[in-house]
Amino acid sequence: MVIMSATLDFLSVNVWHILMAIGNLLILVLILKKFLFKPVQNILKQREEEISQTYGKADKALEEAESEKELYRQKLDGAKAEADSLIESASKRAKEESSEIISAAREEAAARRRRADEDIELAKKKAAEELKGSVSEMVIGLASEVVGREIDEKAHAALIDEAIESLGE
Q1: 135 near 160, Cβ under 8 Å?
Q2: Per residue in 58-99, pLDDT tens?
Q3: What is the largest distance, in Å, between two alpha-carbon atoms of the chain?
Q4: DSSP code string of 94-139
Q5: Secondary structure of the chain: what % helix, strand, coil (to 5)?
Q6: Contact, 144 vs 151, CB < 8 A?
Q7: Residue 164: alpha-carbon gap to chain centroid
Q8: Euclidean distance between CA atoms 132 and 168, whole angstroms
Q9: pLDDT value at position 26?
Q10: Could you give the CA distance from residue 145 to residue 152 in angstroms, rounded to a whole number?
């Protein structure tokens, strides 16, 4: 029985020990709560606030980036429209200048043609006058040799001019 009593003492439940263990556990929990759980919870709460502030700043920066992107896109569209406008106006100016240059060249060519026609006509008249003079002198010379006397040059020149003009027409 001695063995049994020793075993029983070992296995027996002492209520006082249980109450003391529960009391120690409660004291330990209160001490840990005061010195460990509250500071840890405060640190976690601060960390959570910092994280939410960081997310808030990130969201705000994202919104600003989106608005800047939209502004940049609008400016880019405006610049593209302005460039298209400049190209179109330059093209119009180039066409206008081209047509002005072509018309000026045509006018210059027409003026040169008129001057050339006038020069040709003047040269024809000079050549005709020289021919009349040469023919008149030649005919008068021949006629004076044939007739053997001096013919009135003015009358004879008028007859020759009349004959040449009737041939020219």
Answers
A1: yes
A2: 999 999 999 999 999 999 999 999 999 999 998 999 899 999
A3: 203
A4: HHHHHHHHHHHHHHHHHHHHHHHHHHHHHHHHHHHHHHHHHHHHHH
A5: 95, 0, 5
A6: yes
A7: 73
A8: 11
A9: 96
A10: 14
